[in-house]
Amino acid sequence: MTRTTHRTQELAAFLRARRESLDPRDFGLPERRRARRTPGLRREEVAELAGISIDYVVRLEQGRDLRPSAEVVEALAGALRLAPGERAYLFGLAQQRPRSADEPATTAAPPLARLVADLSPLPAMLMNHRYDILAWNDEMARLLLDFGTLPASQRNSMWLCLKHPEIRERYADRERVLRDGIAHLRAAWAAHPDDRALTDLIAEFTAGDEEFARLWAERDVQVNGRGSKVLRHPGVGELALNFEVLVPLQDPDQRLLIYRAADEESRSALERLFA
Question: Where do transmembrane segments lie in this chain (predicted)?
Answer without folding.
Answer: none
